[in-house]
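Lecture 7 notes: from sequence to structure.

We start with a single chain of 109 residues. Read the sequence below before looking at the structure.
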Amino acid sequence: MNIALSQLYLSIAHVYIVAIVLFRCHALCMEWKSDDLRQILARNVRMARADLRLSQEELANRCGLHRNYVGAIERGECNITLVTLTKIASGLDLTPDILLVDLRRKDQM
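Now the structure, written as tokens:
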């Protein structure tokens, strides 16, 4: 009986932690409009690609995407999926979270 009770407490603790994380993520997302997030991503992809001296076509080939799509992402014209974000980050030798950080905001650093 003690094992079952301790597993129940552990499950409740996990639910509590997940709830806190979701609440904080929701609060953070509410600070920005989706347009802002697209522009942050666009700027970061463009800068990272330029740092690696890659053309849009070269980055697209690394990611398995079309060069026009990479251009649209860099202009902030489209919402991308997490899979696409991961492909782009991998093509730039970065982690996906780096591409979503607004480096102009000091409170995120």
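DSSP finds six helices and no strands in the chain. Keep this in mind for problem set 3.
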